[in-house]
Design brief:
2 copies of one chain form a homodimer. Chain A is α+β, with helices and mostly antiparallel strands. In chain A, about 40% of the residues lie in helices and about 15% in strands.
Chain lengths: ~525, ~525
């Protein structure tokens, strides 16, 4: 396997090359010497070890070396191109409460926006400004000259056709902006008008059809810079961009399509003829019935869609009916980030669930209950005591550091430092309000044995044994220092539930009962 | 001159083809018939008249037809590429108060950011959050995972190298975002540390040097999609973009450069070797001393720079010194819009100034003062009365509709409707609080003649004559309707200053005295 030296060295994961706190590289590419070569390479323990000609040593996991290329998912390669019939069984949608409460639902909605370009949330409270709250569940609102949010209803002196009752053909918004907002949200507050239905067209699909049917027209639209313009008293925007934008590999990455705001092209006559022929052909494709996905937004529906891919349309409506949407813009990068983070959290919840159901069903260090039973009891006790969610989670997860097969060390007399290991592991997803009590729950035992008469005598036999391994009761000085820690009270509370949670006969809820609470804390 | 028919028709300016209220096109390109041709074309009165094969008629100003191509100014074609020596006489900078008070100063700063990629405002109050106010003078703040604003100072557990005291080589920010924020602002609150100076490099200039010296390396960097990545507990961003982005015409349009956040490229080995050779060569160019513009930000300085063109750097600083910047992101499109609108306003102020100094120095409809003298007196009377700025402006500009050579009509007995003409013209830059009293100042005369005993008798001879042309005193019903208008009181106030302002001997300030007041009202 050939290993390009600068590439390999640029990816060195050691603590000298990358800041261990944030993973960012600590050297510049120009810091590497000329004629860098690999002096030695050896494979062992699933790693490739490299000795470099400048004396540096690197170590790479073999499975990292073997990883397949992936992409950022933004070009046509990362999308599911569609036509209307593909949604005959229904469009991607979810209930607002389920979306808020369940990371799996939320990931499904965001994944649909990334893959299909849109999704609809149902049951979003039809109150003014709510569309901003929807956007903030996955990203940041992009303010424009239309405001932080805009009202789509008939206006007396509209600065945009959107604010009239006219039909609007499929188009993308704000093409005269660069950077153009990559997401749009439309939240329906009222739609009792006759007409005013919504339509979507997959602009990538339309562009792919043009490429298939008329490759030269497609090429013309990718290389002609079209001036998109918008002007009113306080605004004068212009962006020169092709109708079909390709990435550096020639894949469709962006569609801008809005006849209303195309300004005056200034090109040689033959190029203008060629552009207008291609533009008319592309426009005709976007109007094909099989590409028009039509649906009606009712009060409480919020449509989220990709504004650099999907074209949106509206049928005309009667002015005496009432129709009021509120919209805002946001961006795909934050939505994709939220999607990735949600998937990490879902994977973590699945891993924890597997521990509770697999390894956790094993004997718990000589206690009468299993590990899972002990932790579920601790969580249930915290819940029954009316503890806030972060303490219920800490009680539930306090011994998670025993998982991964290290619990036995402790019983053999070696401190497995399970409180630190658990807290560090949980810190990937939970804040210090959860990880703090986990980290301190062993110290809390040593503290209580010192400051509370009779506490040590109530310890279980196994717990008395591990107390010795963990350092025994605190000195008075240690206890005073512990009590002064900001999370000491929380840690003591968790410790008390820990001690109580060893009842072999207690009926406890399963892990699924706590999953929503954990999901909500992964903020 | 060949006239491509679809191009020409798409640009028809008639009221059927474009919404007169907002200038947006009212037809789709597919609405035009197949085989559209020009049946007749005639030139007269500076216009081209066209009769189309579908019967539509269009009329185009010849000077519109003759316009030269322009661009959006975002590629290298719209920039002034630089090296450090080009700023030996000083960097683009302005005083914050001057920037706020004078559109010419503000346009100079924004123009420098557009053309040279940066400017520094001095004397910006060094208080927390002020950087957001700076951004809002020309656009909208772009929120990111670093917050709406971010603090650049040493942090205990930084998620980014920026928040340490280490030196940082020239780079662009947030390359893992798409859309990437196109502007960055850095506002210095405190910089008493040793070191911590700022550096800028023109990334377009560096890229152009690479193209000149090593065209194949340049080509490699424009076609290699580089995965930029950032990950922490709540974030997982990735954007695959070339280091040097070209527009559809092959011009440099965007530079992304940040070694810290380049993830793992996955390409065939030969391509990785070629990429790393080109990347190292480009990185070395960005470090050339002649490209490093270095300066120090002191408290109250706010640097604004183009984040898709300029690379910014920082020297290391001593941790025991104190250094605190606040930054935020924004976008170039809004800044370019603000620049264009400012230039429109400056041109309008210049035009008004020319009226006052040229045409306005002429006889005023038989009065003893000139038109300019009359209007300046009216403005001065309003100011002396302590009127709010919008009324001073309305008094100053109330007769602006006489300009353009139509005043004579009125004296010949034809109503030139100068109040409407003036208000409509002013509405390009001023809000209704200014244009309203201008529009109603003739009606206010007719109103006062009806409701106020002795008012008519005090009119000047010329004003009595024009009263007749304008419809005479109002009926009682008309007067009641007028009095109920929201702007009636303002119009009456302006009218009284109007009547008073005919003193041939009054000393009045020149137009320049009122210019800042007008500039501030053009919001």
């Amino acid at each position: 396997m050939p290993l390009p030296p600068y590439w390999l060295r640029d990816n060195c994961p050691c603590g000298e090359c990358r800041d261990p706190r944030n993973g960012q590289k600590l050297f510049q590419i120009t810091d590497l010497p000329e004629d860098l070569t690999i002096d030695e390479r050896t494979e062992a323990d699933g790693h490739l070890a490299v000795l470099w000609s400048d004396g540096h040593r690197s170590r790479y996991p073999l499975d990292w070396l073997a990883q397949e290329p992936s992409g950022d998912g933004r070009s046509e390669a990362g999308k599911r191109l569609w036509q209307a019939a593909d949604f005959a069984a229904g469009i991607p949608e979810a209930d607002w409460d389920a979306y808020l409460g369940d990371p799996v639902e939320q990931a499904a909605v965001l994944g649909a926006v990334l893959r299909s370009g849109f999704a609809v949330l149902r049951g979003v409270p039809p109150v003014e400004g709510q569309v901003l709250a929807v956007a903030r569940t996955f990203g940041y609102v992009r303010e424009t000259n239309y405001g932080e949010l805009f009202d789509v209803r008939v206006e007396a002196d509209p600065n945009n056709l959107a604010f009239t009752s006219a039909a609007i053909a499929p188009h993308s918004d704000n093409p005269y902006r660069d950077p153009v907002p990559t997401l749009q949200l439309l939240h329906c507050l009222d739609n009792s008008a006759v007409g005013g239905d919504s339509g979507l067209v997959d602009g990538f699909r339309a562009a792919a059809a043009l490429r298939e049917e008329a490759p030269e027209d497609f090429a013309v639209l990718t290389r002609t810079l079209v001036p998109f313009v918008f002007r009113d008293r306080g605004t004068e925007l212009r962006a020169d961009r092709p109708l079909i934008g390709l990435d550096a590999l020639g894949r469709i990455r962006e569609v801008r399509f809005n006849n209303r705001s195309i300004g005056t092209l200034r090109l040689p006559a033959a190029e203008l003829d060629a552009f207008y022929a291609a533009y008319r052909r592309f426009a005709a494709i976007t109007l094909r019935p099989e590409l028009q996905l039509e649906f009606r937004l009712g009060p409480g529906d919020c449509l989220i869609f990709d504004n650099v891919r999907l074209l949106h349309a509206r049928t005309a409506f009667e002015q005496n009916g009432s129709r009021h949407l509120q919209g805002c813009y946001a961006d795909l990068d934050s939505l994709a980030s939220a999607f990735a983070v949600l998937n990490r959290r879902i994977a973590a919840l699945d891993t924890i669930a597997e521990y509770f159901e697999g390894e956790g069903a094993a004997e718990y260090l000589g206690e009468a209950v299993t590990m899972a039973g002990h932790m579920l009891q601790a969580g249930a006790l915290a819940e029954a005591a009316g503890a806030p969610p972060h303490l219920v989670a800490a009680a539930l997860l306090h011994d998670v550091g025993h998982f991964g097969g290290t619990g036995l060390d402790l019983m053999e007399g070696r401190d497995n430092r399970h409180s630190d290991a658990g807290a560090d592991w949980l810190a990937q997803w939970f804040g210090p309000e959860v990880t703090g009590p986990v980290r301190l729950h062993v110290a809390a035992k040593r503290y209580l044995c010192t400051v509370e008469a009779g506490y040590r005598a109530r310890l279980s036999e196994a717990s008395e044994f591990t107390l010795q391994v963990q350092g025994g009761p605190m000195t008075d000085e240690q206890a005073a220092a512990f009590a002064a820690l900001p999370g000491a009270a929380d840690a003591v509370a968790v410790r008390r539930w820990d001690e109580e949670a060893k009842d072999a006969d207690a009926a406890t809820p399963g892990f699924g009962h706590f999953r929503p609470l954990l999901a909500a804390l992964m903020g």
